[in-house]
Design a protein that fits this description.
With 368 residues, the chain is of the alpha/beta class. It is 35% helix and 23% strand. The protein is built from 12 helices and 15 strands. A hairpin with a 2-residue loop joins strand 1 and strand 2. Helix 1 packs across helix 3 and helix 2 packs antiparallel against helix 3. The longest helix has 18 residues. Bound molecules: 2-succinylbenzoate and magnesium ion.
Length: 368
């Protein structure tokens, strides 16, 4: 792919308001922006979406940096590739560390699309010109949840996801349903229940939720399958799906009815597309999950979500959902509940050099 250099930028930005789950509070976001430049000066961008601490998966910003610096970039330096798919194969020699792999792999896809004068959406097989937008409400107060829903409804969002956990479930959902009986609503538990909570989880069937995301263990498939047979609400798996094979097993053995695909969690766009293709073939609902990301990862998500199997709104919200000012130009906007899929080459967004400079903590360059 004619790579001449890679630059990593560590950036840091405060969220407009804290993102609260039972696992902790995200008030500030660090991330790694990957810039790959070829010998013709074409730049591809990727984003490392691991958090500063390992609350969602085992990776962190620092482990991602270590993997990129000591293993992944050296692999690319030693083995020139012709296509981003070859990076996926190359990275198989390293166990897991999917978000670190994805940071690099997604930048290769952007570069490859630009080298071939195509949009990333088209390169991946995307068909849609716009995608429906959903939003996440993550707070520990019922009042705040209600006012945020009100605000996001006015902005046109088409699906609402609320964070729940034992102690903040029935009462919260009942209040939301009292004011908004008909909105497309789902709940994300981030592994806060166990199979012993089966009666409590059954009681959530009354709220007519689109789905319940990851109620049980972050690495469990089997008990989700047991639970799915006991509850009406479709189970959607997030944390449990880190490879194509996880998705295949979850579908084939009835562990869930819906899959949330996150590019970072599964190690890149190629694996994400394989999961999408399998869901499409098996008529399983699939949607694109969010990571409180900056604009580069958001842009990759938009391209992915333009594939035909992504039929329901995901966590793809506007740049201004989380940020005063994003690191891309133009910013991602939601109009009447839709996000346009850009038709320009690659991800279809430029980096905002002013914003990159303002948020940069450190950078490191690798010459090929
Ligand atoms: O569990 O889906 C999750 C954000 C960070 C880590 C995990 C999750 C989330 C979200 C998506 O809920 C938030 C977003 O980016 O829209
Ligand atoms: Mg989730």
């Amino acid at each position: 792919m004619n790579i001449s250099s890679i630059q990593l930028y560590l950036i840091k930005m405060p969220l407009k308001s804290p993102f609260i789950t039972h696992l902790g509070v995200v008030g500030e976001r660090e991330g790694i922006i990957v810039e790959i430049i070829d010998h013709d000066g074409i730049c591809g961008y990727g984003e490392g979406v691991a958090f500063s601490s390992p609350w969602y998966t085992e990776e962190t910003v620092e482990t991602s940096f270590h993997m990129l610096n000591d293993f992944l970039i050296p692999l690319l330096q030693n083995q020139p590739i012709q296509h981003p798919k070859e990076a996926t194969m190359l990275f198989q020699s390293i166990r897991r560390n999917n978000m670190a792999k994805s940071a690099l792999e997604t930048a290769l896809w952007d570069l490859y699309s630009k080298q071939n004068q195509a949009s990333l959406s088209k390169m991946l097989g995307g068909k849609k010109e716009r995608i429906p937008s959903g939003v996440v409400v993550a707070t520990n107060s019922v009042t705040k949840a209600l006012s945020q829903i009100e605000h996001y409804l006015e902005e046109g969002y088409q699906r609402f996801k609320i964070k729940i956990h034992p102690g903040q479930d029935v009462s919260l959902l009942a209040e939301i349903r009292r004011y908004y009986p008909d909105i497309p609503l789902m709940a994300d538990a981030n592994s806060s229940y166990t199979i012993k909570d089966i009666e409590q989880l059954k009681s959530l069937d009354q709220f007519n939720l689109l789905m319940i995301e990851q109620p049980l263990g972050h690495d469990d498939l089997i008990e989700h399958g047991i639970l799915q047979k006991e509850i009406m609400t479709p189970i959607c798996l997030d944390e449990s799906i880190v490879t194509f094979d996880d998705a295949r097993k979850a579908i084939d053995y009835g562990c869930c009815k819906v899959i949330n695909v996150k590019v970072g969690r599964v190690g890149g766009l190629y694996e994400a597309k394989r999961i999408h293709d399998y869901c499409f073939e098996k008529d399983i609902e699939v949607w694109c999950g969010g990571m409180i990301e900056f604009g580069i990862s958001r842009a990759h998500n938009i391209a992915l979500a333009s594939l035909p199997g992504f039929s329901i709104p995901g966590d793809i919200s506007a740049s201004n959902r989380f940020w005063e000012e994003d690191i891309i130009l133009p910013e991602v906007t939601v109009e009447n509940g839709w996000v346009n899929v850009p038709s320009g080459i690659g991800i279809g967004f430029e980096i905002n050099p002013k914003r990159l400079k303002e948020t940069m903590v450190s950078k490191r360059k690798y010459v090929f």
